[in-house]
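Posting for a labmate who doesn't have an account.
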Amino acid sequence: LQSRFGRNKHQNLLCQMFNIRQNGSVEEYVERFAELYDQLTAYETNPNPVHYVTRLMEGLTPSIRLMVGIQQPADLDSAYALALLTEELEIIQ
């Protein structure tokens, strides 16, 4: 079953990952992203952190993406923390 239908699910998850966008708060976006990440990494023996950090950043709103990108985060935790901080600073201003 996995060989027959698993490929379709993997492709579906990849499509979702390439199309995910921040529509609400950073926290809501990261929760949806993390769900996809967890499912996708089940198909990979060595997930590439650069790939996932880039995907996370691409889905952020333009202003948050810019500020996170300037910092060049090395991992998802750093990117998430920077996105949250940027969002908080935008709210304060």
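Reply:
Got it, the structure tokens are right above this. Residues 64 and 87 are 7 Å apart (CA to CA).
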